[in-house]
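Dissemination and training. As part of the outreach component of the grant, students in the summer workshop were shown how a complex can be specified as a set of sequence lines and then modelled as a single object. The example used during the hands-on session is reproduced here so that future cohorts can follow it. Participants entered these lines:
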Amino acid sequence: MAHLAHNHTAEDCVELVTIFQSLSEEDTSTVASLVSDKHYESGEYIYQAGDPADALTIVAHGQAKVFQLASNGKEQMLRILQTGDFDGEAALFSNEDRGSFAQALMDTDVCQIKRSDFQKLMKSSPELAVNMVNAFGQRIVQLEQQTTEAATSSVESRLASYLLETGAGLKQDEFELPLKKKDIATYLGTTPETISRKLSSLAKDELIEKKSNTLIKILDADGLAMVE
Amino acid sequence: MAHLAHNHTAEDCVELVTIFQSLSEEDTSTVASLVSDKHYESGEYIYQAGDPADALTIVAHGQAKVFQLASNGKEQMLRILQTGDFDGEAALFSNEDRGSFAQALMDTDVCQIKRSDFQKLMKSSPELAVNMVNAFGQRIVQLEQQTTEAATSSVESRLASYLLETGAGLKQDEFELPLKKKDIATYLGTTPETISRKLSSLAKDELIEKKSNTLIKILDADGLAMVE
DNA sequence: CGCGAAATTGAGAGCAATCAAATGTCGTGG
DNA sequence: CCACGACATTTGATTGCTCTCAATTTCGCG
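and obtained this result:
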C-alpha cells in the first residue's frame, strides 16, 4: 500500500473514513490525489458561518466541535467530530453557505475534498455512492437514537451515555474530558451546573471516579449504561 | 406523460418522491416498472419489528407512524411519514431485520422497491445516487434541527413547531390533527396531559383556535414560531 | 344508549434551570 | 516565581416546568 503516497494525512483520511473503505485500489488512489489536508491548532476555526460550503471535511486526527449561534447569541452544539468523522452532509450538494461553525478542540488534522471533485467521483464510482448512502444512513440511525434519547432520558442518563461514548471513542476507560463542561452542557442540552452535579452524583454511586478536574475514569460501564 | 403507466400509485411514487426527481425518462420508466404498490387501512401495520428490511418504502398517499417499543413496553415515536416521505434508510443496505414498526394512521398507499432492485438502479444511475445522498443529507439536517430543538426548547415551543409543520405539510391553516394526542405526546417526548394543557395555553394566547377536539386553526403563525 | 378509549382537569412531587456566591484553574506579566 | 485577572467550576438556595397519579368528562362506535 501507499504506493502513490506523497502525503501522510491524505492517506489517513482515505484509510480512516468509512465512505472510502471497500473502494477499488484505483478509486482509492484517485481519492488520495484529490484530497487536500490542513492542520489546525486548538481553538482555530475550521470553517465559520457564511463561508461557502463547497467541500467535504474529514477529521484525520483530533477533534472539533460543530455549533450554531442561537438568536440570543448562545452556542448550540450540533455535534462533535472525532477522528474519522466527516462533515458537510447537507451543504455538499447545495449552493448554500454554511450556517454553522467548526472549531478545533485540540491540534487537529483535517482533509478536504472539493464538492465538484467529489461529485465527479460519485458519478464514476458506484461503490462510493453506495458507501455514501450507507454512511448517511448510519448517521440518520444515530441521530434518531439521539433524538429519542434526548426526548425520553434524564440528564444523568444522557451524561452517562456521553461518557461511555467518549471512552469508547478513545478506547480507554480513563481519559481527559475533551470538552469543557460548558460545552458538554450545551451538547447534552443542559447547563454547566447540572453537569457538575450529575458528575458528582455518578461518582458518589461509584460508576465513575473523578481523578481530577478533567480526568475521568469509568469504573462500571454496565452500570453507566443502565442509568435512567 | 404516463406513457408507460399501468399503475397509478406507482406513478405517484415516482413523481412524488424527491429521490426520483430529475431522473432521465428512461430511468423514470425503469423505476416505475420496479415499484410494487399496496394499500393499507388505518391501523394496519406496514411492517413490524423482526420483519426483514429488504425494501425501500414510499408513502404515495396517506400517513404512517414509525415507532419502537422501549424496554418498558411503551411506544417511542421515531417519525411520521407523510405523503412523499420514504423509509428504510439504514436497513436498505444492511441485512438486518427491522427494529421498528410502521403503522398506517389513515388509509394509506405505499410503494416498495426491493433492495436488490434499488441497488442495481443506484449503480446504473449516478443521478439517482446523487439524489439519494441529497435526500439523506436533508433528512440529516432536519434531524439535527430536531435534536437541537428537543434539547433546548420547552414543550410549548416544540408543540408550536409541530403545529406549524403539520399545517404547512397539509397546506392549510385549519386542519384535523392527524395523530391522537397520545401519539403527539410520544412524538414530542412528553405526555398527553401536557399536550392537552399546552394546547389550551396556546389557545388562550390566541395563537391557535380549538375548533373541536381534533380540529385546529392556526391564528398567528408568526407568534407560534416565536413561542419559547 | 352504553361501553371503552381518549382527553381534560386538578393536586402534588421531582428534576433541572436560574440566580447567586465562593472556589479553583490557567495564562500573563511583573 | 509570584501576583493578578479572566474564566471555569462548584456549591447552595430557590423557582418553575413538567411528570405522575387520580378523578371526571367527553368522544367514538357498535
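Residues 1-5 of chain A have pLDDT under 50 and may be disordered. Students were then asked to discuss how this feature might be tested experimentally.
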